[in-house]
Specification:
Length: 420
């Protein structure tokens, strides 16, 4: 057991201490605290807080520090917000960008509208909950206070579904999304179902009033078609489709995307998903939207066709990692919005940099890949107008970012002559 002084909160939310020349990460310890910890390489297990930080508060959840979902729940609001905003500032500094970052926007709203539980089978019994941090151990929980009330039945439903498949002995991921029509559940890990399992799952879907149950995206039970509201439009959600974690988070990101692109006649929305931005953008601009997930692009298109008063919205299925929009293609747009997965969009950012597009709006769920892609734009003459961190994963080390980058017409002209 070692006595350690925590000097800062790291980017995964753990306390960072020094043990001689070595750096040690102590989960659940806060900056300024003196703790006793068991050290194992770079990691340490918090055994006792000898001197607590004045910023330490009681966590809201009894499973905190067990279930692995929340990294920082025992920190006062103000330092918590400073830490999250600092994640973005630090990532930018690490790529040589010293840019102003807005205060953190709280986007917890009514709670997270999607959750993935894990199930492990133990002698014919399903254990369902969250995975402990840095472990495959399942922590069985009673409820998660971060979820929307519409997901209050998600755990009992997940337990019932997992129990039906427990004889397989395979671990499962059970993704549950709250929709306008009830819970939409997608099972992963079971493989193809036997007929008796399918029948039992259909029974459980009825008993737990699920809107839809799919297995690896394949329909098991459809009781109501799950829809989500996107602005004033409704979208029929394809199984397993991406959705921003909170409704308020999606609105906060979309509001900033709309504000930045106001006045743009023709906008590209790259990595559009089911159209969280594209369907709203189509209220003010002509939009071309791209994503590699065909069901998402189809759902967005159907929603646009059913809506009235939207400007033209063209959806295209395209793998933007393998085949990013080229600089020449991008030059047709007045603004380019891109919202890639965690890996970021390096190839796409390089094409934006080479294009004559005057405005790029980056939305990201990863501060490191955001900073790397932002550096590509800034080095090509774009100036950051506004960088806003949005907190829809409260207590977790994830932060969403929305940032607008613009460049002057002389820089556009220089690019145009390069492109010929
Ligand atoms: C962070 S989500 C954003 C979706 C949408 N903008 C939203 O806010 O709901 C990232 C999207 O990238 C898509 N995607 C992942 N890999 C891709 C690729 N290689 N090419 C194009 N789209 C991809 C996913 O299908 C997903 O819809």
């Amino acid at each position: 057991m070692k006595r350690l002084v925590i000097h800062r909160l790291g980017h995964r939310g753990e306390g960072v201490a020094r043990d001689g020349d070595a750096r040690v990460f102590v989960p659940y310890a806060l900056a300024g605290e003196t703790v006793l910890a068991e050290i194992d390489g770079e990691q340490a297990r918090l055994a006792e807080i000898v001197a607590a930080s004045p910023d330490r508060i009681a966590p809201i959840c009894p499973h905190y520090a067990d279930c692995g979902g929340c990294a920082v729940q025992a920190l006062r609001d103000e330092p918590y917000r400073a830490w999250k905003r600092g994640l973005v500032e630090t990532a930018l500094k690490n790529v040589g960008l010293s840019l102003a970052v807005d205060p953190l926007v709280d986007a917890q709203g009514a709670g997270r509208r999607r959750v993935t539980f894990h199930a492990r089978m133990d002698q014919g019994a399903a254990r369902v909950g969250f995975m402990a941090a840095r472990s495959h151990k399942i922590v069985e929980i009673e409820a998660c206070p971060l979820l929307v009330p519409e997901l209050s039945g998600a755990l009992p439903a997940a337990r019932a579904l997992a129990q039906i498949l427990s004889a397989r002995g395979k671990p499962l991921d059970i993704a549950v999304t709250a929709t306008l029509d009830g819970m939409d559940v997608d099972l992963r890990g079971a493989g193809p179902l036997e007929e008796h399992e399918r029948r039992a799952l259909i029974g459980a879907a009825e008993a737990h009033d699920l809107a839809r149950l799919t297995n690896h995206g394949r329909l098991v039970a459809l009781r109501r078609t799950p829809r989500v509201a996107v602005g004033r439009v409704q979208v029929e959600l394809p199984p397993g489709a991406f959705l921003q974690a909170t409704a308020v988070g999606e609105e906060a990101l979309a509001a900033r995307v709309l504000e930045a692109t106001r006045g743009a006649k023709h906008v590209a929305d790259l990595f559009c998903g089911v159209g969280a931005f594209a369907l709203r953008l189509a209220e003010q601009s002509r939009v071309a939207a791209y994503d590699s997930a065909a069901p998402a692009v189809d759902a967005m298109g159907a929603a646009a066709r059913a809506a009235s008063g939207l400007k033209p919205l063209a959806g295209e299925v395209r793998d933007l990692f393998a085949r990013p929009l080229t600089a020449a293609e991008l030059s047709a747009f007045d603004a380019v919005v891109f919202d890639p997965p965690r890996a970021g969009a390096l190839a796409q950012a390089k094409e934006i940099a080479q294009s004559t597009a005057p405005l790029a709006v980056a939305v990201s769920c990863n501060a490191q890949s955001f900073a790397r892609d932002a550096a590509v734009l800034v080095n090509a003459g774009f100036r950051a107008q506004r960088i806003t961190p949005v907190d829809q994963f409260r207590y977790a080390p994830h932060v969403e970012i929305v940032a607008a980058f613009s460049r002057s017409s002389s820089q556009k002209k220089a690019k145009r002559s390069l492109l010929g």
